[in-house]
Design goal:
single chain, about 500 residues, 6-stranded parallel sheet, about 35% helix, about 15% strand
C-alpha cells in the first residue's frame, strides 16, 4: 500500500507584504485578507490519510526545510516569480512541487518548467488523481478536471453567449487549518456559493479561466455550511447575482439564519428591486462592484456596456439606500483616458458617495483578450510578472504617458484615503446606509490609508498646472517610485 503523504500548501506573497524569519511582523492589513479559499478547498479534497498544512506568506514565514513530501503552490500572475523561487528551493531539496491557480492555468508554457506537475482549472476531480499518481510514482505533467476549460494567452474571446454549465460540486473547506492565524484575517469564514461569471469583460481573467461559465452549488448545501459558521462571513463569488433564480432562492433561505455578509456583484442588482431588497434582508451589508470607469467609450471597448454610465450614479445610490455599502472597483489607463481622468474619477467617487475604493491601473493579464490585443500591438514594455499587480504600469497608454498614469493613479488613491475624507464618508454613511456599512467603510479606509503611508504613495495630478507638458514634475514624482518599473527611454 502506498505511503501517506505529508503535503504543504503555499500561498506566496509579494515582497512588500511577505512575512519572513528576518521580518516576522505581520503588516496591519487584516481587512484586506479573507481566508485562503483555494487552498482550504484543496485541503478538503485531500484524502484523510494524508497530512496537510497551509502556509500563507502574508501572515507566516515559510520554512524551506519543512518536513514534507509534496508541495502545492497556488499562483496569480503577479506572484508567479515568487512562486517559481519557492518551487526551485523545494525541488532542489528533492520535493515534488505542483503548481495551480490562474497563472498556471492561463500561462502553462510559462509555469510548466518550474513545477513537476500543473493543475489546470478547478482542483475538484484533478487533485485526488494527482495525489494517487504521486503516491505510485506515476506523476504526470498536467491534471485537469472534466469541469474545467483551459484558456491560453492570446486565445480569442468566448462566443457571443455564456456557455451552459452544470452544478458546482465542491467540499466544505478546511478552515481549521487557518485557525492558528485567524487574527490576521478579516475573516477565515469564506464561502463560495457559485463560481464564474457570464459577462465577457476583455480585461477579466475570471472570464478567461471559467470560459463564461457560471456554476452554482445546491442551495441546501450552501445553507447547511452556513449554519455551522459564525454570524459574519464573506461570499467570495465572482458575481453573487449571476443567476437570478439561484440568488433569490439563496437569499430567501438565508433570511431565517440572521447572518451578515459581504460579497461581489454586478451593478445590475440596483435594477432589480426584489433582488436588492432580499439581499439586504438576507444580511448583505457590503458589495464590491466593478464600476471601472466613468467613460462610456471605455466601457464599450471592454465589453462592459451593461454598466450604463448614464444611470450609474442613481444605481449606486439605490444600493446604498437599501442599506448596503459599496466598495467600488475603478480602473485608470484605458484608451479613452486623458490627463483629466484622475480629477474626473475623484469627482465621480464623491458624487456617487462610494464607501471604499479599490483603484486599479489597467493591467493586461495573460490569458485575457486584452493581453492578446496589447501584445499584438506591441504596447507591452514590461514582462516582469511581479508588476502585473494592478499597481504598476506595464503598457503604453493611448492618451497619457506611463509616468502620468502611475503618478495619477497614486494621487487618486492618496486623495481618496485622506483621513478627513475617510471620516467624512463614515459620518455620511451612518445616516445614508446604516452603521454596519459605515463601519465597514471606515475599517477599509483606515487599512488602505495605512497601506498608502507604508508604501509612500502620494502621486501627482497630471492635470494640475505644474504638471502640464513641459514640466518635469510628473516624471520626477514617478522616479521617486522605483516600483513602477517604467523604462526611462519611454519618457524621452
Amino acid at each position: 500500500m502506498p505511503k501517506a503523504l505529508k503535503i504543504l500548501l503555499i500561498l506566496p506573497a509579494g515582497e512588500g507584504v511577505r512575512v519572513t524569519r528576518r521580518n516576522p511582523e505581520v503588516p496591519r492589513r487584516a481587512m484586506l485578507r479573507f481566508s485562503v479559499l483555494p487552498l482550504t478547498v484543496v485541503a478538503a479534497l485531500t484524502p484523510p490519510e494524508h497530512e496537510v498544512r497551509i502556509v500563507d506568506e502574508n501572515v507566516e514565514a515559510l520554512d524551506f526545510d519543512a518536513e514534507c513530501d509534496l508541495v502545492g503552490i497556488t499562483l496569480m500572475t503577479a506572484l508567479a516569480p515568487r512562486a517559481y523561487r519557492i518551487a526551485s528551493e523545494f525541488r532542489r531539496r528533492g520535493k515534488l512541487v505542483v503548481g495551480g491557480g490562474y497563472h498556471a492555468t492561463l500561462c502553462p508554457e510559462d509555469a510548466a518548467p518550474h513545477f513537476d506537475a500543473l493543475v489546470a482549472g478547478d482542483a475538484e476531480g484533478a487533485w485526488p488523481r494527482l495525489l494517487h499518481d504521486a503516491q505510485t510514482g506515476q506523476l504526470q505533467g498536467k491534471y485537469q478536471s472534466d469541469a474545467s476549460r483551459q484558456s491560453r494567452a492570446g486565445d480569442p474571446p468566448p462566443g457571443p453567449g455564456p456557455e451552459p454549465a452544470g452544478a458546482l460540486l465542491t467540499p466544505v473547506p478546511r478552515r481549521d487549518l487557518l485557525a492558528p492565524n485567524a487574527r490576521y484575517y478579516a475573516t477565515i469564514n469564506a464561502v463560495q456559493a457559485g463560481r464564474g461569471c457570464r459577462h465577457n469583460c476583455r480585461y477579466c481573467s475570471v472570464t478567461a479561466f471559467h470560459g463564461r461559465k457560471y456554476r452554482a452549488r445546491p442551495v441546501p448545501e450552501v445553507l447547511a455550511e452556513l449554519r455551522a459558521l459564525p454570524r459574519d462571513f464573506i461570499f467570495v463569488d465572482d458575481n453573487i447575482i449571476a443567476d437570478r433564480a439561484f440568488a433569490l432562492e439563496l437569499f430567501r433561505g438565508l433570511i431565517p439564519l440572521r447572518k451578515r455578509w459581504v460579497s461581489q456583484s454586478s451593478i445590475l442588482i440596483a435594477e432589480d428591486t426584489e433582488l436588492l431588497r432580499l439581499a439586504h434582508a438576507a444580511g448583505c451589508r457590503g458589495l464590491f462592484i466593478g464600476v471601472e470607469t466613468e467613460s462610456a467609450a471605455n466601457l464599450a471597448a471592454m465589453n462592459k456596456q451593461f454598466n450604463h454610465q448614464d444611470g450609474c450614479v442613481s444605481q449606486l445610490r439605490r444600493i446604498r439606500r437599501a442599506g448596503i455599502g459599496v466598495i467600488a472597483g475603478m480602473i485608470v489607463g484605458m484608451d479613452d483616458d486623458d490627463p483629466l481622468v484622475f480629477e474626473r474619477t475623484l469627482g465621480f467617487l464623491r458624487e456617487t458617495h462610494i464607501d471604499a475604493l479599490q483603484l486599479n491601473i489597467l493591467t493586461p493579464l495573460p490569458g485575457t483578450p486584452l493581453f492578446g490585443d496589447m501584445d499584438r500591438a506591441g504596447r507591452l514594455f514590461d514582462r516582469d510578472w511581479s508588476h502585473y499587480d494592478y499597481r504598476h504600469v506595464v503598457f503604453r497608454p493611448a492618451r497619457i504617458t506611463p509616468a502620468q498614469l502611475q503618478a495619477g493613479a497614486d494621487w487618486v488613491y492618496a486623495q481618496f484615503y485622506r483621513l478627513d475624507r475617510i471620516l467624512g464618508r463614515f459620518v455620511r454613511a451612518l445616516f445614508t446606509a446604516g452603521w454596519m456599512p459605515a463601519l465597514l467603510g471606515l475599517k477599509l479606509g483606515l487599512t488602505y490609508r495605512y497601506d498608502n503611508r507604508r508604501e509612500g504613495i502620494v502621486g501627482t495630478n497630471p492635470a494640475s498646472p505644474a504638471a502640464l507638458p513641459g514640466s518635469e514634475r510628473v516624471t520626477a514624482a514617478c522616479a521617486l517610485r522605483a516600483r513602477a518599473g517604467i523604462k526611462a527611454e519611454l519618457e524621452a
